[in-house]
Design a protein that fits this description.
- A hairpin with a 6-residue loop joins strand 1 and strand 2.
- 15% of the residues lie in helices and 57% in strands.
- The chain has a five-stranded antiparallel sheet.
- The chain has one domain (19-91).
- The longest helix has 14 residues, at 35-48.
- It has one helix at residues 35-48, and strands spanning 3-12, 19-29, 53-55, 58-72, 79-91.
Length: 92
């Protein structure tokens, strides 16, 4: 801990040209209070939001954070943050 995981992603064909990509990023922390999770989420937002990224034969443009939420997980001890990002993607 802390722990970051890329969660579910969804790729759609309904965006021309290319594809629309939705992706979740999860953050967990056992530190008391949500501050560590929110700090890590801010760093992830800074690394991805508004960026154009290229890799594995794809170009991702217009990366945007749609939502970010932080809550106490079901165990009552772990803070959990979920961010959802949206991007346009096309093969390079």
């Amino acid at each position: 801990m802390p722990y970051v995981q890329f969660g579910q992603s969804e790729i759609t064909d309904d965006f021309v040209p290319g594809h629309r990509v939705l992706m979740e990023v999860h953050v967990w922390s056992k530190v008391e209070g949500p501050h560590e999770v929110k700090d890590i989420q801010g760093k992830i937002r800074g690394a991805l939001h508004g960026r154009c990224l290229t890799g594995a034969g794809w170009r991702f443009t217009c990366v945007r954070e749609d939502t970010a939420r932080t809550f106490l997980d079901v165990d009552g001890e772990t803070w959990h943050g979920v961010q959802r990002f949206r991007a346009s993607a096309s093969p390079t």
